Amino acid sequence: MDSKDNTALYAFRRFGDDVLRAAYAGCGSYAEAEDITQEVFLTLHSHPQTFRDDDHLRAWLLRCAMNRCLNYRKSFRVSRTGSLEELPEMPGSPVFSEAENGIRSAIAKLPEKYATVIYLYYYEGYKAREIGDMLGKSENTVSSLLRRGREKLRIELEEEGTV
Asked: Which structural domain, as residue segments, surrounds residue 21?
């Protein structure tokens, strides 16, 4: 087994659940999240990368997953499918409370630039500086995106009557 096999396997064992959660949060479909997760690790296997440490590896994996979610959300397939509420619960899919589903749904409706930073900040626990490094933006830009995204999220949740 060569080093690329070891890196991809290690990354999957260590961060597979994190990538799956990020993908599910980003696309709202458990089946698509599984596909995206598989694609992320296949990419790592096919195109080996060098990482400074586990944090760098995890950040790369999550950014790769978020990019694929963005591509999925822009795809023709998404615009031609029914709503998530119409689908039966998939076995093994994460179970969220009604409030969590309302918040996740509202985040998914935000423009991608806000949804990504909100997800990375609140769900993955990254600091604004770390998000900026991942996205190639300054810490101040990320802070502004977080502030504007929270405001848009608050308005969305008020309109839906969730808060």
From this structure: 1-91
